[in-house]
DNA sequence: GACAATGATTGGTC
DNA sequence: GACCAATCATTGTC
């Protein structure tokens, strides 16, 4: 038995006597014989209302019409409305003021952080295009991965918003429909505006639970996408030959202190086509997609691994070191013969770096090459005597017949930079202090280290 | 498939 | 936070 029925039954039992909502003509005879008759009359009316659902449609319509035309209908209707409103208020009081669902809040926060909900943050194709442009055509693999990630995230975002709109539209339509229905019914049964409001809230709660499912699914999709993206990043890929050569050139030309600065790492990463820090969705938004530093971290990893493996097995790397020394020296000679040093590409940390390195002019190389002739290193002279270095190198090459064991025996690349503790010396390196190409204002981690 | 090479990760140190 | 050392896990070569 529903609430309305119960209320009506309780009232039919005791009658309407003394109720403040009853008009005088309904209260006057509560104690007399005429009052009993009217009580019976009200009882009959209520009984008819209660049994109306058991009747056929036609009968019910006829009965409904009769009841609507009944002389006591307005009074009785008012009383029922009042009773119901009071009851509903007490129910509402217990149900309202629900705290926000923490699960929903978590989902909302996550979707906001991932850039799925909230304002568009330049993601999607725009970010993908920016990433591709920033990579400058190099590091295509990584920028492609970024683009894919952004594109898929945008796809998720679009689906989410489309579905959300659908749900909102359906919710509004259903709410409007129910409200109209209730308003229509309020002419025949007691339905207060507050009850309609309550019903609307119930509908909204139901739809918000559907929305929560949508948000949950979206979060899961983003998580899966992200984990796949990270897995793809973790997957090891060997650097190509050119990249390895560039890194090796830098390493061996800075052998006395092979610690590239952040700028140098970035330059190396660019030059090696290892995608460098492409900050997607940057700005003041705290929910920035993690600024990607894998280009530089890869370079850092490479140097970390190289330092350790070189130190562990210097002999094994000796030949490699000599090879790079020779190559770099030749490059230096070629560069100098084609123009002054001022026109040569700047070192990574020089002001106005053009993005390419001239490893050839690093002090370590000159130190090594010159030491072969028994000359002490004099950085200032090095810059001015490039031709003599070329000659020296040619001499070395002709004497050794290439880079053979004899050269190795000369310790062309002695582990000079490694101190007794197994670490590299702190002494300032020629590359940073007296390097001909680096001005006094040049900042280099080699010196800082 | 074994093995070496190598990029990435992890835990510790400074 | 950068670095080292050890280790893992994948790739490339034979």
From TrEMBL:
- Every copy of the PBC domain together lies at 37-231
Q: Name one GO biological process term.
A: cell differentiation
GO molecular function ontology, one term from the record: sequence-specific DNA binding
Q: Which UniProt keywords apply?
A: Activator, Developmental protein, Differentiation, DNA-binding, Homeobox, Nucleus, Transcription, Transcription regulation
InterPro entries given for it?
Answer: HD, Homeodomain-like_sf, KN_HD, PBX_PBC_dom, TALE_homeobox
Task: Classify the main location.
Answer: nucleus
Can you supply one Gene Ontology CC term for this chain's record? transcription regulator complex
Composition skew (Polar residues), residue ranges? 336-348, 428-437
Map out region (Disordered) in residue numbers: 1-40, 335-357, 414-449
Question: Where in the chain is the DNA-binding region found?
Answer: 232-314
UniProt-listed CDD domains:
homeodomain
What's the superkingdom here?
Eukaryota
Q: Which Pfam families match?
A: Homeobox_KN (PF05920), PBC (PF03792)
Q: Where in the cell is it found?
A: Nucleus
Which residue intervals define the domain Homeobox in the entry?
230-313
Its biological purpose is as follows: Sequence-specific transcription factor which is part of a developmental regulatory system that provides cells with specific positional identities on the anterior-posterior axis.
So what family is this one in? Belongs to the TALE/PBX homeobox family.
Q: What is this protein called?
A: Pre-B-cell leukemia transcription factor 1
